[in-house]
Amino acid sequence: MKVAPIRQLAICLVALFALFAPDVCSAKNSKAENIAAYRHTQLSRGARALPVLAQLEYSEALEFLRQGDRATAEQRLESAMSLDPGFADPHFTMAGLKLRDFSFDAAVYLIEGVTLATRDFHTQGRLVINFMTFVPYVLILVSLIFCIAMAIRYLPFGAHRIKEFIENRMSALLAGPSAIMLLLVPLVVFPGIITALAYVTITCWMFMYRRERFVLLMLITPFVLYGLFGSLLGPITSIADPKSMTSLISRANHDPGSVELIEAIEQTSAGELEPEKDMALGLLYQRRGDYVTAADHFFRTISRKKHLAMAYINLGNVYFMQGDYAKALEGYRKSEGIEPLDPVCQHALAQAYIRELLMKESSKSLQLASALGIDNIRKSYAEGALDNVAVFPKTYSPMEMWRIAMRDSGTNSANYFDEALSPFMRFPRTASAWILIGALIATFILSAIIKPWKLTFQCSNCGSLACEGCSSDSGDMSLCRECASAIEHASSEKVIAALLRQKRHSSLVSRRRSARFATMLLPGVQHFSYGRMSRGFTLATLFAVSALELFARGYIVPDEHMLIFGKAPWKLILPAAGLLLAYLSTFLSRQGMDLRDRKVKKRSQRPEKKNDEKKAVRAA
Amino acid sequence: MSLEGNLSAFGISEILQLIAVQQKSGMLSITNPEGAARVLFFRKGDIISTRDRRRRSKDPFKDYLTRYGILSREDLIRVTQLSAQSKLDLTDILVSENLMTEDEVRTQFHSHVQESVHEVLEWAQGSYKFIPGNDVISGIKTWGEFSVEGTLMECMRRIDEFPFMLELIPDPSVVVEKIVDPDDEMELTTNDKQVLNILNKSHTVDALIAKGKLPKFEVYEAIKHLNEKDLVRITGDHVADAQEEDSKRSVVRGSRRRNIIPFLVSLAMFVGALLLAGKYALPQVRTLILERSVASEDAPITRNRTEARLRWILEAYYAEKGRYPTTISLLKKDGRLDEAFIDDLKRVNLQYRLTGNGSGYTLL
Questions:
Q1: B298 to chain A: nearest residue by CA?
Q2: How far apart are CA A414 and CA A383, in angstroms?
Q3: Do the chains contact at B285 and A171, CB–CB below 8 Å?
C-alpha cells in the first residue's frame, strides 16, 4: 500500500507534536509563574524549606555575579537564604562578597555558613562521607608512591638473581630486561593497590631496612583491618546510600510528602528500624493531609515504642489538624510526661490550650517553649512556610539520626567503601585482606628459608648488585664482578684502594643520575627510596591531598541533592600550591645516595653445606 | 703573559737560562718542524718534569721506560690500565706494585729529564712557548727538582762527547763482544758493570740499549769505557738479532651464541599481561580518573546516588518548567546535565519515562 508523501509528512508532524507537545505547552507559562506555583504547592503540603528553589536562586545569583551585577546577585543570595534557611552556600558566597568590602558582615556570614554546614544531619553526613572517602584515597596514593619507591629501589635485587639464572643456564640474550619483564608480569596482570602492596612485600621485604618494613606494615595494616572489619563501617554506607532507611528517614524529616519518597520507604526493609519507618511514613502522610493513615502509622510506632515522645506529639498533631483538640491535648500531655523540656511539645500544648480556651496553661507552655528555643525551629522554616503551620511536626534531631544510622548498619548488604575503593583494590574486601596476610606469611617463610647470602646484595665497594654467583671476597668486602675485575691486576693496597675508590665514584655518579630522574616523577618517591621515611611520608601525603583536592575541586563525593557546585578560586589555588610545594621540595632536596652496605657473610664465614659435610664423612 | 718565539732566533739554551735566572714557574713547550714536541715544567727556575700530561699527548716517560727495557710491554699495559682506572700517577703505581723502587724511579726520572733536554738542545729549528704561572704546574708529579745549569752542562758534555762515541760505534747494529772478565781491582762505574753483566754473549748495541735499563748515551759511554779497558770488542759485523717478537696473544673470546628465546618468552608474557590488563583492569581505572565515576551495574549505592541526583535535577526542571521533560536529553540541552552524567546513567542502566502527560515520571 502506497502512502502519499503529503500524508507521510502530516503523520510525522503529528507524531513530533505528540512527542514535544507537553514541552511546547508548558512554555506558555513563564518561569516565574511556574516557580510560584511550585512554591505554593510545596508550602501548602507543609514543606519546611524549598531547597530546589533556593538552589535555583543561588545558581542565578552566581550567574549575576559572573556578569558583574552584584546588587542583583546579593538580592538573589538573600532570597536563596530565605527559601532554605539551612542552605549554607549562599552564606559563604555572601561572606566572600562582604570580604571584598572589608565589611565585618563577612565574618558573620562565614560563621553562619559554617554553623549551617555542620548543623543538619544531611550536611554532617556529607562531611563525614567525604572525609571517610578522602582518607583511604590519600592512603592509596601514599601507598602507591611507597610501592613505586620500593620497586625502584629493590626490584632490581630480585631481577638480578633471575638475570643471573637465565644468563648462566640459558646464556640468554638481554637477560636483564627479560628478568624485569618476568618480574613485572603479576603486577601488570592484576594492577591495583592490594597487588602492589603484596608484590612489594614478597619481592622487597627481605632487602628492606627496618624502617622501610615498618612503613610498609603501617600502610598494609589499614587495608587488612578494612578487609576484616569493613562491615563495621555500615553507618557510613547508610549515610552514603540515598535509598538506605537512614537517608529516607532523614529526607522524611523535611519532605512535603512526596509519593516517590513514601513508596521508597514502604518498599525498603527496615529491620530494627520499623518504629522509625512508621514514624517517617506518618510524618509524610500527615503532610499530604492523609491524617487517618498518618495516625495509623503513629499508633504502630507507639505500639512498638511506648515511651517515644515524638510519636505522641505527631499523633497529637494529627488530631489537632482534624480539630480534635482534646485528643491532641492528650497526646501532647503524654509526650510532656516523657520529655517535659521539648520546645515543640510545649508549643503544641500551648496551641491546644488556646483552642481549648485554657489561656493560663497556654501562656505557661508558650513561655516554656520560648525558653527552650522554639524560635530556632521557627527560623528553620522558609519564608511563608509558617503560614500553614499551627503546630510544628516533631522530627528527628541530628543526634537521633546518627543513632538511627548506627542501627541501620546491619540492613545494608552493599558497602559504600567496597564501591568507592574497588577500582583501586581490584579484589573483594575480605579477599584483599587475606592476600595481604598471605603475602606477609609467605614473606616470613621465605625469609626463614632463604639464607641472606643466597639473596642479591650490594657490592661492599660500589653498591652495584651482586650475588653469590657473581661476587668475590676481597679482605672484608664482598665485591661485584666489575670491582673484582678492576683490582684483579693490582697487588698493593694503595692501588687497590684507589681503584675501588674510582669504581665506587663512577658507579655512584651513574646510579645517582639514573635514580634522580626516576624518583622525581612523584613527590615522596625520592625520599622513600633514599631511606628518608618520615620526609617521604610527609611529601607523599602532601602530594596526595593536594592532587585529590585539585581533582575533586571541593567535595570528593558531591551532594546528590545539589544542583550547582561552587568552584571557588581557593579550591584551585590551595591544592595547586600544595602540589607546587611538594614538587619544589622534591626538586630542591639534595638527597645523598647512601650506600646501603648489606652485611653479607664472606664465603669463609658461611656454614658448610650439608652435602659437603656428608661427602667429607663418606670420604673419611 | 706567555713568551714565545722561534728557535732560529733565540736558542733553547738561552731560553732555559732566562727561565732559570728569573726563577720562573710554568710550562715550556717546544715543537720542531717535524711535529715532534717536548714539554718542560719549571718551578722557581728548576726543571721538575718533562712528562707531557696534556690531553691528546703521550706520556714520554712511558716510552722511555719501555725503550730501555726498564719496564716490559706487558707491565706497561697493566700499569697504564691501573693508572687510568685508579687515577693514580704511573710512577706511584710502579712503586706500589713493586715494579720499581723509589730510588730507581727517581734515577730514571732524572735520566729521562736529562735525555729530554738533550734531545731538545739538538733541535736547530722549531718554535717554543712558555706559559708562566703556578696554575700550569699544579698537580704535576715530580721526583726531584733539577737545576737548569747542571742539566745544561751535562747536556753540553754529552753533545761534545757523542761524536767521538759515534766514531767508535757508527751504527747501533754493530756487535759488542765481551773479551775478558774484569779484575777485581779494575775501577768500573755502575753503568759499566751493568752493561758488562748483559754481555755474557755477543749483542748488538741496539740490543744492549733495549736490555740495559740505561739511556742510550750512557750505554754508548759504558761501551766506550769498557772498550778503552779492553774488556769488550766492537766488531763491524751486522748481526741480525733475533727480534723478540711480541707474542700477540689473540684472546679468542668465547663466542658463545646468545639465546634469544628467554627474552622472547619474557616479552610475550609481558605483552600478554599488558593486553589482559588493558582489557579487564584499566577501563575501570580510566573511568574513575578521566570521568570521575565509579558507576557500574555492580555498584548499587552509586546507582542510587545517580538516581537521587537525577531526581533532584528533574525536580528543579519541574519547578521552573511546570512539568517534567520528555527526554533526558532535554536536561542536557538545558545545561543541567553534563556528558559524564549521561554516561553514568548508561553505566548504571537507568532509564527515564515520562508519565501522566508530564506531571510524573518513572525511573527504571
A1: A419
A2: 40
A3: no
CA distance readout (Å), A453 to A153, A216, A458, A467, A598 = 19, 24, 11, 7, 10
Average pLDDT for residues B305-326, to the nearest whole number? 89
Query: What domains, with CATH codes, occur in chain B?
Result: 1-60+75-166 (no CATH), 169-241 (1.10.10.10), 274-363 (no CATH)
DSSP annotation string for A205-240: GGG--HHHHHHHHHHHHHHHHHHHHGGGGHHHHHHH
Tell me the domain boundaries of chain A: 1-37, 45-119, 242-411
Please state, as a whole number, how many other Cβ atoms lie within 10 Å of the Cβ of residue B151. Answer: 22
Looking at the predicted complex, does its ipTM rise above 0.85? no
Mean pLDDT of A191-197: 90
**Which sign does the torsion angle of CA A397, A398, A399, A405 carry?**
positive
Helix (H) or strand (E) holding A12: helix A5-26
Residues in chain A with CB shorter than 8 Å from the CB of B267 are: 178, 181
**For position A11, what pLDDT does the model report?**
61
Across the range B331-349, mean pLDDT stands at 82
Query: Does domain A242-411 bear CATH number 3.90.1150.10?
Result: no
**Rounded CA separation A587/A521 (Å):** 10
**CATH topology classification for A45-119:** 1.25.40
Whether residue A108 has pLDDT greater than 90: yes
Q: Given this model, what pLDDT does residue A148 score? A: 92
Contact A171 B273 (CB under 8 A): no
What local confidence, expressed as pLDDT, does residue A300 receive? 92
Query: How much is the pLDDT for A73?
Result: 92
Mark yes or no for CB contact A560/B322 under 8 Å. no
